[in-house]
What does this fold into?
Amino acid sequence: MSWNARVARIAPFRVMSLLEIAQAREAAGHDVIHLEIGEPDFATPAPVVTAGRDALDAGQTRYTPAAGLPALREAIAGHYAEHFGAAVDPARILITPGASGALLLASQLLAGRGDRVLMADPNYPCNRHFMALAGAEVDAVPVGPESGWQLDAELVARHWQADTRLAMLATPSNPTGHMLDAGRLAAVADTVKACGGELLVDEIYQGLCYDLPPLSVAATTPDAFVVNSFSKYFGMTGWRLGWLLAPEAAVEPLTRLAQNVFLAASTPAQHAALAAFTPECREILEARRLELGRRRDALLAGLSRLGLAPSLPPQGAFYLWLDVSRVSDDSEAFCRALLEEENVAITPGTDFALAGGEHHVRIAFTTGEARLEEAVSRLERFLARR
Ligand SMILES: Cc1ncc(COP(=O)(O)O)c(C=O)c1O
It folds into this structure.
């Protein structure tokens, strides 16, 4: 049999096989500390669960319009106005099955065969893969602490080519947790505009930031494409709900795409998500953000005791990108050995970085402080044997 050649360009997500080994060890009675998957140990907030249950009881199980429930699109627009100072017409918001659904729509609209797409390396691998599936070539630009682990205006200008169509950012970033502030974000947007391209910003970790106030490119660049989700800040990973904010002219073709590729996002999930914007829910979510900030600080304190803390601490998301070159230049072997010897599951950098992934790992601070401290002690023991 022969498959579509584009699929051959899609690398497996290595963290999934690591998770499988971790789960098998757990089933065999080992006490595994999970710091590998991008999903905190919090349940979906109770007001959202109740609203979802009420929607099911009320028979809200039929298709919504392809672009989503009007009330939810309005609630998201209200969220932009209230928290990010962005005036957004609800008609520019399409509700999607997770940010993944939004990325699918945006990549199919913006990146075709022969187009080049600029993004930072390291990045969230699926973002790269969506572009490859659309037929585009990805130019992954190596970034490091000197540009705050992000593309900046100078890098975009330097790497832009005649057939570059799109620049993609993710802020806060997965896997580094680093953010672009409003000034640097606007500078990238101006550069992309001057180059005659489009800007796509993945803001899925928006709201999960610990040093800078949360921000949206929508406040300064109304013609940017913006991906977001209920998965992370709102604690709704398994509900599969996200959104795409698009310039007005793109809404019609995007809606046509949505009608064809998924018809509509989950109806009960959309009704549940309406409760995510209530003050009651906001209070829960903000308490969780503060808890994640404390976890970050505990992990940083532990790593600095081992002399391993990164020079630039993560400002957002729930990830820490750690250089382990002092002890390993094979992050996959490093992660496997740490799991097998000490039952600590973290992710090899090769999942995220085309350059330098072999000596980086990603640690997700998605579990409580005591477990993080225990993980650092196990890491210390592990390193002492190296
Ligand atoms: C940067 C980034 N974008 C998009 C996604 C997709 O998220 P979802 O489809 O759950 O909304 C993830 C998931 O981890 C992510 O880290």
